[in-house]
Fold this sequence. Notes:
The chain is α+β, with helices and mostly antiparallel strands. The chain has two domains: 14-61; 74-168, Tetrahydropterin Synthase, Chain A (2-Layer Sandwich), CATH 3.30.479.30. It is built from three helices and four strands, in the order αβββααβ. It has helices at residues 14-59, 110-125, 135-154; strands at residues 74-78, 82-85, 93-103, 158-168. Strands 1, 2, 3 and 4 form a four-stranded antiparallel β-sheet that branches. Helix 2 (110-125) crosses helix 3 (135-154). The relative contact order is 0.12.
Amino acid sequence: MAKALELPAPADSAPAREGSLRWLLTLGLLTLLSAAIGGGFGLVMVSGIEKRVEEKYKALPEKPEVASPYAGNIGIKKLAPVVTNLAASNEDWVRVEASIVYKMNEEQNPDVMAGEIRQDILAYLRTLSLAQIQGPSGLLHLREDLNERVKLRSKGVIQELVLETLIVQ
């Protein structure tokens, strides 16, 4: 009797497939298990943080609402545009349009105050140079200076000077 030659099992044989299938199933099971544990841990952490935040905000006193400075009996009056040249220059011109916010029912007439304020703005602008009003900080300083002059001139009747436009040519 002749002995049959035994050939090595091909790689696609059942035992090799079974081992790789077990390995893939184990890997998939471990991945699902780690995702479930991570998700559960995340939920526990989030709920703990939410509880701490709620406790912290319950412990804080409630802030009272800040009353608007424009509440009450106030009015607004638009000033006539102010056009003038800047200091030490015949070429640099500025045009300012503004409004005043004032307390109504005071002794002073708002039309008279508007005329005086317009004169103050004109006089102040003639003292400025172009470099003083350039950029955001220059505009902020101009606004603060004009508001201060307006409040002093009106003895507190005018609450604010609102700059509507500022054009420099």
